[in-house]
Amino acid sequence: xxxxxxxxxxxxxxxxxxxxxxxxxxxxxxxxxxxxxxxxxxxxxxxxxxxxxxxxxxxxxxxxxxxxxxxxxxxxxxxxxxxxxxxxxxxxxxxxxxxxxxxxxxxxxxxxxxxxxxxxxxxxxxxxxxxxxxxxxxxxxxxxxxxx
Length: 148
Prior knowledge:
- By secondary structure, the protein is an alpha+beta fold.
- 21% of the residues lie in helices and 36% in strands.
- The protein contains three helices and seven strands; from the N terminus they run ββββαβββαα.
- It has helices at residues 44-56, 109-114, 121-132, and strands spanning 5-14, 17-25, 28-32, 35-37, 64-72, 78-87, 101-107.
- A hairpin with a 5-residue loop joins β5 (64-72) and β6 (78-87).
- The longest helix is centred in the middle third of the chain and has 13 residues, at 44-56.
- The protein starts with a strand and ends in a 16-residue tail after the last helix.
């Protein structure tokens, strides 16, 4: 039975800088947006808030839905990735709460586009989507008959 992994990610921007989390994958540092899997009994928006807290120690509410990516990873794992926008008024101290995150960085888009440390091509694609400004209201996501 086909079951894609459902994930959420947040493009977090402040003062023309973007928040990335650094993980070690196959002994190499890799940068990603705060992101992770949808868990049982949570909405997509709640999942985005939780992942931002776990990976960066930041409490913030997504302001818009940026994109839904259907993606097949290099290992042939299928994903549905819900991408959210969080614009903050200033860069805040980001402290990982998850042991898998090495550190958090605020970087300009140009640095990220030029980096060979991105976890996947979706990191740069997410920034390009943000820069195009094609934000959708969160009302596009409805939790029907929720909670269980």
